[in-house]
């Protein structure tokens, strides 16, 4: 079966995923595209022989759409995901699932009412080979119980529209999700402190930030978020255990030695750094949709958890660095919990 995917939001990542679904992934085609910028929707749809539809609601209702991909702006995600779940269609939503915990819970409740999982959230790091190898090491027990995790999330630059709270909401949210998965543990508190700010930042922006998380098992995480580091897109993660440590590898890049120097390139953006992870993420999603199985990737519950933890980090930043306890509801049985 070829899965016919309808795409809501034909901007930067929407177009990247359309290219992926029509090139790198087998078993799928893009059958419909919508965007509030209708000229953009028409142009992108024409490129892949899809229909351009006026609204997300039209696209979800279309008999030409088996599954929905939401790549519009974050605050619009909840409406589209809820509509797709109500229509009983599988839906892949780029992060965030929703911008408020209340909206995430509405989606969780709609999915529970449906009785099985339909939603996958676009936390692609769970599909990255390096993170998957780290998880295998941690699960094998070879480094003993994890004690400390050191992370860095660096972007070369961000646009002026990026604000200080986005360091948690837009950027650290990837570590928040991948660490919950990697450690198979829950984050229970967050604290954000702000060192001397880089002179390369915009006046309104607190950059870099240091985020400290604690898990239910007592693991401590320190995360440097530095979104104007200038030199590249650099993702680091090292877990220290009782008997050893495991470190995320840098992406493979040739080393060049000339004139007494050794050089190798640093990726410049998330598109290059996580291209293979995005491909794997969509291959698995399409395979699940094609066979009528539940998705294997991050769930609506994971989307809720990430938003609640992000909210705690934002509250810490806004209160000048206090430790904020994460206020998470009990996990429902549909997502492996007892509630
Ligand atoms: N996983 C990742 O690493 C990653 C990377 C980049 C962006 N994202 C996420 O993807 C989403 C989109 O980001 P982007 O960088 O592509 O933004 P963008 O601004 O380039 O594109 C968003 C598009 O959605 C359209 N749109 C907005 N509201 C809409 C609506 N209600 N219905 C239809 N179309 C609508 C806009 O017109 C625009 O074309 C964001 O939630 C962002 O956080 C994730
Ligand atoms: O939306 C992007 C994207 O999620 C990237 O993966 C992250 O590194 C950026 O900081 C963020 O702005």
From TrEMBL:
The UniProt record lists the keyword NAD: yes
Catalytic activity: myo-inositol + NAD(+) = scyllo-inosose + NADH + H(+)
Keyword Membrane applies: no
Superkingdom: Bacteria
Domain Gfo/Idh/MocA-like oxidoreductase C-terminal stretches: 135-323
EC number: 1.1.1.18
Keywords annotated in UniProt: NAD, Oxidoreductase
Family to which this protein belongs: Belongs to the Gfo/Idh/MocA family.
Protein purpose: Involved in the oxidation of myo-inositol (MI) to 2-keto-myo-inositol (2KMI or 2-inosose).
Protein name (record): Inositol 2-dehydrogenase
Species for this entry: Streptomyces mirabilis
């Amino acid at each position: 079966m070829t899965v016919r995917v309808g795409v809501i939001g034909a901007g930067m990542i929407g177009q990247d995923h359309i290219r992926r679904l029509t090139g790198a992934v087998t078993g799928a085609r893009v059958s419909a595209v919508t965007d509030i910028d209708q000229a953009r929707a028409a142009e992108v749809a024409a490129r892949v022989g899809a229909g351009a539809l006026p609204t997300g609601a039209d696209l979800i209702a279309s008999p030409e759409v088996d599954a929905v991909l939401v790549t519009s702006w974050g605050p619009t995600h909840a409406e589209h995901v809820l509509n797709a779940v109500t229509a009983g269609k599988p839906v892949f939503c780029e992060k965030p699932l929703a911008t408020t915990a209340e909206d995430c819970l509405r989606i969780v409740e709609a999915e529970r009412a449906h009785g099985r999982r339909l939603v996958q959230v676009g936390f692609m790091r769970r599909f990255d080979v390096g993170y998957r190898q780290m998880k295998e090491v941690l699960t094998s027990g070879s480094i003993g119980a994890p004690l400390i995790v050191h992370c860095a999330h660096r972007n070369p630059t961000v646009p002026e529209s990026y604000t200080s709270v986005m360091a948690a909401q837009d950027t650290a949210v990837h570590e928040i999700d991948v660490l919950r998965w990697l450690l198979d543990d829950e984050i229970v508190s967050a604290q954000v402190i702000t060192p001397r700010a880089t002179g390369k930042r915009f006046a309104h922006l607190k950059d870099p930030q240091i985020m400290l998380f604690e898990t239910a098992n007592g693991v401590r995480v320190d995360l440097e978020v530095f979104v104007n580091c200038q030199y590249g897109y650099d993702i680091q993660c090292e877990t220290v255990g009782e008997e050893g440590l495991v470190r995320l590898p840098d992406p493979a890049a040739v080393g060049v030695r000339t004139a007494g120097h050794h050089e190798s390139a640093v990726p410049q953006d998330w598109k290059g750094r996580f291209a293979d992870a995005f491909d794997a993420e969509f291959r698995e999603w399409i395979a699940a949709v094609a066979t009528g199985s539940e998705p294997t990737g991050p769930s609506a519950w994971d989307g809720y958890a990430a938003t609640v933890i992000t909210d705690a980090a934002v509250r810490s930043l806004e209160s000048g660095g206090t430790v904020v306890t994460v206020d998470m509801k009990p996990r429902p049985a549909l997502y492996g919990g007892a509630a």
